[in-house]
Amino acid sequence: ETVKSKYHNLLSVQHPRVKLLEYRHQQQNTFKPEEILYKTLGFSVARETSSLISAGKGVFVTRGWVPKGAVVSMYPGTVYQKYEPIFFQSIGNPFIFRCLDGVLIDGNDKGISKVVYRSCNGRDRLGPFKMSDSTWLTSEICNPLAVGQYVNNCSNDRAANVCYQEFDVPAVFPIELKQYLPNIAYSCDKQSPLRCVILVALRDIKQGEELFSNYYTIV
């Protein structure tokens, strides 16, 4: 609402064209996705080098703090039903998430997985509306929550502070907001709800903490 009101104010003021363009440029610089996330939910998350040795990237709370029960990230990727082919995409791929009912989500942002997701994204576009967010495949992420595939597994000395929650996107979900969902169905033949997986905070998580999940705990 804060962002919307600023745009309304912009439209109501008659500026010379040059000043108007400069003002819009300033607005774009001010309202970056991570800034909007922080202003809206009181925290922001990002990928950084993990605190675990040889774990590669991890996800950290970079600003603010996450209250218990809050959605702290989303698991992006192509959604495969149990009977759909994923053999070649799965070779050497550590980012495949298996849901309780056997549905698979391929969260790899490289190689053939990246090509498949982008292909499905272009296939499902409805006029001016995008049916999913593909920016998580780039460095310019539109939905800063779409980093859940980089959350590392907990260990004996690093307890889990987030857990996985599966859900199906309801049919009444606004079509203009689907451009922010970082998931897409592999097949368009069968009309079934889109499966999404989010990570929920098990406790309050402070700024600077890394997110850890239990790979075997799915709600």
Automatic annotation (TrEMBL):
Cited InterPro entries? SET_dom, SET_dom_sf, SETD9
User: Membrane-crossing residues?
Assistant: none
User: What residues does the SET domain cover?
Assistant: 41-216
UniProt-listed SUPFAM superfamilies:
SET domain
Name the Gene3D superfamilies for this protein: SET domain (2.170.270.10)
Q: What is this protein called?
A: SET domain-containing protein
